[in-house]
Design a protein that fits this description.
Blueprint lengths: L2 E2 H11 L4 E4 L6 H13 L5 E4 L3 H15 L3 E5 L1 H17 L4 E7 L15 H4 L16 E3 L6 H13 L5 E7 H4 L2 E2 L19 H13 L3 E5 L6 H14 L3 E3 L20 H4 L4 E5 L17 E6 L16 E4 L2 H12 L7 H28 L5 H7 L8 E6 L15 E3 L9 H11 L4 E7 H6 L2 H10 L5 E6 L4 H10 L21 H6 L4 E5 L5 H13 L4 E6 L3
Parallel strand pairs: 2-3, 2-4, 4-5, 5-7, 6-7, 9-10, 9-11, 11-12, 12-13, 14-15, 14-16, 16-17, 17-19, 18-19
Antiparallel strand pairs: 1-8
Helix pairs in contact: 1-2, 1-6, 3-4, 3-14, 8-11, 9-11
Length: 559
């Protein structure tokens, strides 16, 4: 049998360790379908195809799988319309530097005469002058495959770009005629294309930073994406404990430090920022909110990251006295060596002060929970506290709302993931499915706002959970409100006319009975309105998931 380019394409993906091809197919997929059928007959290893009935969900699942395994995956969508549907989740993946090969078919460019020429009415209207133009700003690299015999080399190039530091998604369009071309034996030099090493800081910069830490009375560490490599948080915990370094995971997207650690000092930098004489920022695009707070003018600022200038953000003006282009782990490990044996005159005093502050914070958080448990309605502190009923060391928590470690500490590196700073809603549910696919033995808990749940195209997500046997626990913080819209209105116009209506204009979001949606997919669904009923409901839902049934708890939390 002759060999077509689509077969070479799937073989190349497999050669790069791609486990899954998340697809939402269309008429452009015919060569891919044929290639999969041929691979099955020949028993050749190729990525497992997974049909996902919405493009945002497909990209979100790939994102979730990669953030757990740290291995890039591939997605294929239908021409321009499928690509357009995916851009929301692509923006999230781009800002979170998730390596991903996003592909889509290209409508046939020949009207007749070629294998795969146009044979449907939509093939004229779906052609674009520049299909990649709609997403070019959000990818590191894009290309349209020109010839069938390019397939292997194109995949090699795409994935070396996606996986090089700083990582990120890439885009490839695949014309139907090209995928269907007959090709000869393929040659590839992929074995001799070594990926560049991730950046490391110079010894001179590490020594400078170590000197500043040794001299500082009030240092402060602020993290954003630190913890993407779970080893980051292990080394950070050791350093923070030994040298009494306070840590603020601010709008963190990964697990940086457990709230049970005495150097965890909450999730807001403001209280410590104003008195800090040294601020060390690890992988944080926005380490504080300049319109509301700023470091002391004499404080030294250090910015650390694989892209410490965050070059893809058009405007960003945070100061820096020392800027290190390096992975968090390489800096933390180098600091362990550099600080060992240095005179640290302020550690003992700082240890006592911060330990006492930690105890005070925990007392405050307990008091908030006690008050919340006695209230008539469910609040954020109470919901987070009740999640302790189900969260253990074998749980992966995915947050697309305000999951707070202050009320539900996590102790497992790699056990927490949160929405990208881009804020493209609808990520949490499909990301949890991808995480479950990557970790079938773990309980995957996604904590979503009601808006985030609706943006996720929940019918598509529940469908995938049912059909692919991916039981996850979804907990909805349902305030029937676009909370961010209301907060923004009241922040700007607290004394304005809109504030007279409590800022709810354009923010009201009356919610349906979400628990019935999961029931339609043979899942376990509950609605909870009273604080006293929540712990038992969460236990029942978690038991259902551990028994192989997806579950959803619709938690009514009036604003």
């Amino acid at each position: 049998m002759t060999r077509i380019a689509a077969e070479e394409y799937l073989d190349a993906l497999a050669a790069h360790g791609i486990d899954h091809l998340f697809v939402n197919p269309g008429t452009d997929f015919a060569p891919i379908v044929e290639a999969y059928a041929r691979a099955a007959r020949g028993n050749r290893p190729v990525p497992r195809p997974m049909v996902v009935p919405h493009e945002n969900a497909a990209v979100g699942m790939a994102h979730g799988y990669t953030m757990v395994t740290r291995r890039a995956q591939a997605v294929m969508l239908h021409t321009n319309v499928g690509t357009a549907n995916s851009i929301n989740m692509l923006i999230d993946a781009s800002r979170d530097r998730i390596p991903m090969l996003l592909t889509s078919g290209r409508t046939p460019f020949t009207e007749s005469g070629a294998e795969g020429s146009r044979n449907a009415h939509i093939h004229w209207a779906q052609e674009m002058y520049d299909q990649a133009g709609m997403l070019r700003e959000m990818v590191k690299w894009d290309y349209e495959m020109k010839r069938g015999d390019q397939a292997g080399n194109v995949v090699d190039r795409a994935l070396e770009m996606a996986n090089s530091s700083p990582q990120g998604p890439v885009y490839l369009s695949l014309p139907r005629e090209v995928l269907g071309e007959i090709v000869g034996p393929a040659e590839s030099n992929r074995a001799h294309r070594a990926r560049p090493r991730a950046p490391e800081a110079s010894s001179r910069d590490i020594d400078q930073l170590a000197d500043w830490i040794a001299a500082a009375r009030n240092p402060l560490i602020i993290t954003g994406m630190l913890g993407r490599d779970p080893q980051d948080s292990v080394v950070l915990a050791r350093l923070a404990e030994r040298y009494a370094l306070p840590v603020i995971p601010y709008n963190t997207r990964y697990f940086a430090m457990s709230a049970n650690h005495k150097m965890f000092q909450g999730s807001a930098p403001g209280p410590l920022l104003k008195d800090a004489d040294l601020v060390i920022v690890f992988e944080a695009d926005v380490p504080w909110m300049p319109s509301k707070e700023s470091p002391h003018p004499d404080a030294k600022i250090v910015q650390i990251g694989e892209d410490p200038l965050h070059a893809r953000l058009p405007m960003r003006g945070f100061p820096s006295d020392l800027t290190l282009t390096a992975t968090s782990l390489s800096v933390l490990e180098a600091l362990e060596t550099a600080l060992d044996g240095r005179a640290m005159p302020h550690v003992a005093d700082r240890q006592a002060r911060l330990t006492a502050r930690s105890a005070g914070l925990h007392a405050t958080w307990r008091e908030e929970v006690e008050r919340a448990g006695k209230a008539n309605t469910i609040s954020l502190p109470w919901l987070n506290h009740c999640l302790r009923e189900v969260v253990d060391d074998d749980t992966i928590v995915i947050s697309e709302y305000s999951f707070r470690q202050e009320y539900c500490p996590i102790d497992t590196p790699g056990g927490f993931f949160a929405l990208s700073s881009a804020g493209g809603l609808g990520w949490g549910f499909p990301a949890s499915l991808g995480a479950k696919l990557a970790s079938p033995g773990k309980l995957v808990l996604s904590v979503l706002g009601d808006g985030a749940y609706m943006f996720a195209n929940p019918t598509a997500c529940h469908y995938v959970a049912q059909m692919q046997n991916l039981p996850v626990l979804t907990v909805i913080y349902n305030n029937a409100l676009y909370g961010a819209v209301r907060r923004a209105t009241l922040d700007m116009y607290g004394q304005g006319i809109a504030a007279e209506g409590d800022g709810r204009l354009l923010a009201d979001l009356p919610a349906p009975s979400f628990e019935k949606i999961v029931a339609a997919h043979d899942g376990h669904g509950e609605k909870v309105e009273r604080p006293a009923d929540l712990p038992a409901a969460l236990r029942r839902a978690a038991a259902a998931v551990r028994g192989g049934q997806q579950a959803l708890v619709n938690v009514i939390c009036p604003p």
